[in-house]
UniProtKB/TrEMBL annotation:
Keywords of this entry: Acyltransferase, Transferase
The keyword Transcription is annotated on this UniProt entry: no
Keyword Transferase listed: yes
InterPro entries named in the record: Acyl_CoA_acyltransferase, GNAT_dom, NSI-like
Database matches in Gene3D superfamilies: 3.40.630.30
Protein name: N-acetyltransferase
Domain N-acetyltransferase: 3-141
Organism from which the protein derives: Pseudorhodoferax aquiterrae
PANTHER family: ACYL-COA N-ACYLTRANSFERASE, GCN5-RELATED N-ACETYLTRANSFERASE 2, CHLOROPLASTIC
Lineage of producing organism: Bacteria, Pseudomonadati, Pseudomonadota, Betaproteobacteria, Burkholderiales
Length: 143
C-alpha cells in the first residue's frame, strides 16, 4: 500500500501524533500543544502507512521573510527508508520564496540537513523553557 500524504490538519489524530514524537524519539509533546503549533504553522505534512501515522513535520512561516522548519518526526520502523528526506524536501520546497529558511537539528544530525542546502549559523542563539536540559542535550553552548 502506498504512503498517503496529507498537507492540512483536518482530521489529524493528535494523540497518534504525540505518540509519534515520543517514538521518534523527539520528546514529550502533548496532543494539545501539537494541535496549537501545527494549527499556527503555514505548512505541514502528515504521512500515513495505511491507518498508521508514520511521519510528520511543519514550517512556521510569515509568508515572506522567515520560515522555520521544525518538528520533523519519523516512526523508527520507517527511519532509514528515505521518508524523512522526503518530508524535509517537501517542507523546504513549500517554504521556498521566503528570504531565509531556518531549522535547528538534533545534535549529530547536521549532515542530514546539509543535503538540502542548510549551513551552520555562527550567530544563532536561543532561549529555551529549560535551558539546563538543552545545555545537557547539546542544543546550546555557553561559549
Amino acid at each position: 500500500m502506498p504512503l498517503e500524504w496529507k498537507y492540512d490538519a483536518e482530521g489529524v489524530d493528535w494523540d497518534a501524533l504525540s505518540a509519534l514524537y515520543r517514538a521518534a524519539p523527539l520528546g514529550e509533546k502533548s496532543p494539545q500543544l501539537l494541535r496549537t503549533v501545527f494549527g499556527n504553522s503555514m505548512f505541514k505534512c502528515f504521512v500515513h502507512d495505511g491507518a498508521r501515522l508514520v511521519a510528520a513535520g511543519r514550517v512556521l512561516a510569515d509568508g515572506a521573510d522567515c520560515a522555520y522548519v521544525c518538528d520533523i518526526a519519523v516512526l523508527p520502523a520507517h527511519q532509514g527508508t528515505g521518508l524523512g528526506k522526503q518530508v524535509v524536501q517537501h517542507l523546504v520546497d513549500a517554504a521556498r520564496g521566503h528570504r531565509k529558511i531556518l531549522l535547528y537539528a538534533v545534535p549529530g544530525k547536521e549532515p542530514f540537513y546539509r543535503r538540502f542546502g542548510f549551513l551552520r549559523m555562527k550567530t544563532a542563539m536561543a532561549i529555551f523553557e529549560n535551558q539546563e536540559a538543552q545545555l545537557a542535550r547539546g542544543y546550546l553552548s555557553e561559549d
